[in-house]
Amino acid sequence: MKKNFTINNFAQIGLVLFTLLGFLLTSLKLPQYGLVFNLVSQVFWIYSSYKAWKNANQIGIFINTLIITLVLLWGVINYWIF
Fold it and tell me: N or C: the chain end with fewer CB closer than 10 Å?
């Protein structure tokens, strides 16, 4: 049986890949790049948490993801602009 590659599969791969890269870069003392990769991963986290909210009424994870996105955005602005 052939499984089709869906947006959800793409989101799950991006979520893991970019989050791990962000943590890895931060642990290698490159926090400015770690923040960028974690911010990119938030696109996939927002998508997944929104689906969880709509499908299973898990609004807490969606709100938490939005707050973490704002924190990461502030970190990127702090490192790269100021």
Answer: N
Query: What is the pLDDT tens value at each position of the chain, 82 positions in all?
Result: 567 789 999 999 999 999 999 999 999 999 999 999 999 999 999 999 999 999 999 999 999 999 999 999 999 999 999 8
Query: In terms of residue numbers, what domain contains 55?
Result: 9-80
For residue 39, is it within any domain? yes
- The model carries a pTM of 0.90
